[in-house]
Design goal:
heterodimer; A: alpha+beta; Phosphorylase Kinase, domain 1; 3-stranded antiparallel β-sheet; 27% helix; B: 4-stranded mixed β-sheet; 11 strands; 32% helix
Chain lengths: 197, 301
């Protein structure tokens, strides 16, 4: 191949362009230097105050929700973090509390009461009223069956020993008081509360 | 803690000339995270909060004989509690450490990166990756002395902790610092955090941790995430390099190639112009002479 002056220059320009391409023109960067700011994902969200559902400490939480509840804009929780106004946690959360969004936005979340009859293999969906009726019937029936008025030594005891009750961790003071009052009134001996774990 | 002036003013951009210095940028206070290992209980709330804020999703993990959730950072695990079990004076010590990007002041990743704009260092010291501009070459993995950036083969990009630059830009604290239930992770200006860190080291020394140190390695210009290390004589056991420096390796040569290319392009362009001026007249004359010759031949026929 005969290298002509013109060919050589062409080659030089071509090679130079190739090496400098993409990032610059003649070595001057053309790439606009711009702040690659990440958008704040809660900038458009509404804030809802809540309480952590897990243990009895009752940390304050803020749930950030997108969607204005129009028919096609179903509200979704996009982020949950500690509520800095809460005197209990001052914005902090434990690792379990920090996962609360997974409890809320979760396709495996159970949304309706499930009932498995004695001996049945499968769970059956029930409405809340059905479940509450069933519970009331069972409580009444068990209490009537197991109520003890006088113990073996002749002491008046008026208690039922047929079932125990366990309160939830997210109970407020008042809910805890109501639970204790209701079940003591029924004569229940075994009253437990998850707050004690 | 003073308010950042312009939290997103830019100091440095990968593979690009420095942005114009601004009189405002000089006044932006450097921010820092201080991880006080003496206060850390290893609860992993920072890990979870990081995943949640950054929408990183869960990964399958398995028990490999440690309280640690993952063996190392991954493209979608930017914060990891390390649980190093070490024997000190015949007794077991748990040298735990929150592992995530240290946000070096002289970031090895940024210095190694050949993709313009893929790595940005803000005036407040935060080093962030811009995946839109990342070319997936993984030079940052080589440049980082702390083994922080992780390559995701699926998206062919590299990911790491952003120090929640989006939150910091909105005046919030990073997700990990906010979640921390023992305030082992603090966030504020670098000056404040240095003072807090030194005070904490002094407290540790009084309590008998004579080797306690503040980890702010000068080899990388200091970091914007510092550690208060109770057993400062055992940095290796915390999986911390003793004297880290940006690892440029042979990567600097690539920058030289780009300048060589630009030089060649200039030489070619100037050469073309010179050639045009110098030889165009002669060539036109030659063409005209040839045309006249042909015309004469036609005429003769």
């Amino acid at each position: 191949m005969v290298t002509t002056r013109r060919g050589f220059i062409k080659l030089g320009v071509g090679a130079g362009a190739g090496l400098a391409a993409g990032t610059s023109v003649l070595g001057f960067p053309t790439d606009k230097v711009e702040a690659a700011t990440r958008t704040l994902k809660i900038a458009q969200a509404r804030e809802f105050h809540s309480v952590c559902p897990y243990c009895a400490v009752g940390c304050g939480m803020i749930a950030y929700v997108l969607g204005d509840e129009a028919r096609n804009a179903v509200p979704t929780v996009v982020h949950i973090e500690g509520d800095p106004d809460s005197p209990i946690n001052a914005g902090a959360l434990c690792p379990k509390g920090a996962t609360t969004m997974q409890l809320t936005v979760n396709r495996r979340r159970v949304l309706k009461p499930l009932y498995r009859a004695p001996g049945a293999a499968d769970w059956k969906e029930m409405s809340w009223s059905e479940v509450l009726d069933l519970l009331a019937q069972r409580i009444k029936e068990t209490r009537d069956r197991t109520f003890v008025t006088v113990d073996s030594k002749g002491n008046t005891v008026n208690r039922q020993e047929g079932f125990a009750v366990a309160g939830g961790a997210a109970f407020s003071n008042e809910e805890g008081y109501l639970m204790a009052k209701l079940f003591r009134a029924l004569g229940t001996v075994y009253i437990e509360q998850q707050a004690r774990v | 803690m003073s308010t950042p002036l312009d939290p997103l003013a830019i100091r440095r951009i990968s593979a690009s000339p420095s942005p114009n210095p601004s009189i405002r940028n000089g006044n932006v206070p450097a921010v820092a995270k201080l991880v006080d290992i003496g206060l850390c209980i290893g609860c992993k709330a920072c890990e979870v909060a990081c995943k949640e804020w950054n929408d990183l999703g869960v990964e399958d993990t398995y028990n490999f004989g440690s309280y640690q959730s993952h063996k190392a950072l991954t493209p979608n695990t930017w914060d990891l509690m390390l649980f190093n079990e070490v024997e000190i004076n015949g007794g077991l010590q748990w040298l735990i450490r929150k592992d995530s990007c240290l946000h070096c002041d002289e970031p090895g990743c940024l210095l190694a990166c050949p993709a313009p704009g893929a790595i940005v260092q803000y005036a407040n010291g935060i080093v962030d990756f811009n995946q839109d501009k990342c070319i997936g070459c993984q030079y940052c993995l080589v440049g980082c002395p702390f083994d922080i950036p992780k390559y995701d083969p699926k998206s062919q990009k590299v990911y790491k902790c952003t120090l929640c630059v989006d939150r910091v830009g909105a005046g919030l604290e990073p997700a990990c610092a906010k979640a921390c239930p023992t305030a082992a992770i603090k966030f504020g200006t670098k000056d404040d955090m240095l003072a807090e860190g030194k005070a904490s080291v002094d407290r540790l020394k009084q309590r008998g941790f004579v080797n306690a140190t503040l980890y702010d390695p000068p080899g990388v210009g200091g970091t914007h995430m510092m550690y208060v290390v109770p057993h400062g004589d055992r940095l290796a056991d915390y999986q911390l390099p003793t004297n880290p420096t940006p690892r440029r390796g042979g990567l600097g040569v690539l920058g030289a190639w780009k300048w060589a290319g630009a030089g060649l392009l200039w030489a070619g362009t100037v050469g073309l112009a010179v050639h045009f001026i110098r030889f165009r007249g002669a060539r036109i004359d030659a063409i005209k002479a040839r045309e006249r010759e042909l015309e004469e031949q036609e005429g003769r026929r």
